[in-house]
Amino acid sequence: MSETSPNEPDSPQQNHPSMRHLVGSSLLSLLVVLVLLTVLRFLLPPMLESSRYSWHRGHLRAEYEQSAESLGQISWEGLSQVSRLVTKRVQPSVVHITVSNSQPLSSTLSRKPKDLVPKVGPNRETRWNSDSSIDAYSFSGQGSGVIVSDDGYILTNHHVLNGGVDIAVYLADQRMLAAEIVGVDKTTDLALLKIDAQGLMPIDWGNSDALEIGSPVWAVGSPFGLTGSVSFGILSGKHRVDLNANPQYRSSRERISSRYADLMQSDVAVNPGNSGGPLVNGRGELIGINTAIVGESYRGVSFSIPSNIAKEIFDQLIEHGRVRRGWLGIELVPEILSDPSIQTPAIVVRAVVPDSPAAQAGLAPGDRLIQLSDIEVVSVEQAIDTIRDTPAGQSIEIHLQRDGQRLVVQAILGELSFAP
Question: For 309-321, b where at least 16 C-beta lie within 10 A, e where not — what string?
Answer without folding.
Answer: bbbbbbebbeeee
